[in-house]
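In response to reviewer comment 3 from the previous cycle, which asked for concrete evidence that the modeling workflow produces usable outputs, we include below a single protein chain processed end to end. The sequence was submitted unchanged, and the resulting structure tokens are shown without manual editing.
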Amino acid sequence: MPISVEADILSSRADTVIEPAVLSNETLTKMYRDMVLIRRVEESLLELAESGKIGGAMHTAIGHEGTAVGMAAALQPDDYLTCTYRGHHHSLARGMDPKRAIAEVLGKADGFAKGKGGSMHFLDPSLGLMGANGIVGAQVPHAAGMALASKIRGEGRIAITFFGDGALYQGVMHETFNMSQRWLLPIIFYCENNRYSEMTPIGRTSSVRDIYMFARAYGMHSLQIDANDVEVVYAAVTQAAERARAGDGPTFIEGITYRLAGHMAGDLETYRSPDEIEAQRAHEPLVVLQRRLLDRGADEKTLAEIRAEVEAEVAEAVEFAQNSPWPHPAETYTDVFAL
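The workflow returned the following structure tokens.
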């Protein structure tokens, strides 16, 4: 029998409460478009993978869009970012071209890394994207190193690193937490708690219910938020960034969300029930934001036009990527090292 997760595991502790930002309808409408774009790109990638057009594993973050878009709006364009192999949403939110992103996943020459990085290694230093990582937890100390470099150089840049709840039990995580707090590094640790470590529910892996409490053992400021609410994410990341830039050190954010698609393409999802997934759809980021926009006077026709525009844009991006040439075999010997 699949083990269900609680519909709402947000803590009721008063010291974790954060007031959501109240953003303008114009800003929220742009966020809505970004979230729809991310959703449709990832759904298209999933379709391509399941039809055999993408080799290797394909991990999507369908249902995590609020985290990515709220973060991107709250940070400076040159702030550093590292993430897991489930990082398409962060990259697109930061401004990565969907055409080059999809081409990269397909292994094509027009991809941002000439097809050599694929889904697991999204990066674009010009956007502050310093690399996704296929090793669980490995991106976290990398971000701490960038934060340390920024502090030494006096750059004013901060780092944010994303990881899942399953990464909390890697030893390198705790070494990095301790070091970052001891040195008051300008870094944000953001845990995307989607209730599952691959196929295992968090209740089977964690000795504590509220995993943001781990960071408090190191004296770190930490909080838990509803990551399906983009205004809450924006507020939390904005406050954490202000603390980091002021020299007050790191913040640990546990963002409660839910992965609506499987762990990866081809996942049979025998570990959870269809009813559980359907129940979560009532509070997923796109639904929450669309409802809020309509409540604040937005026009459903405008939102429908946005969805249609995005549909056409993503269809064009998929076509571009599929028509992109394969890399020349000689590319095997380029980009191997730097002088």
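The first strand starts at residue 80 and ends at 84. We consider this sufficient to address the reviewer's concern, and the full set will be provided in the supplementary archive.
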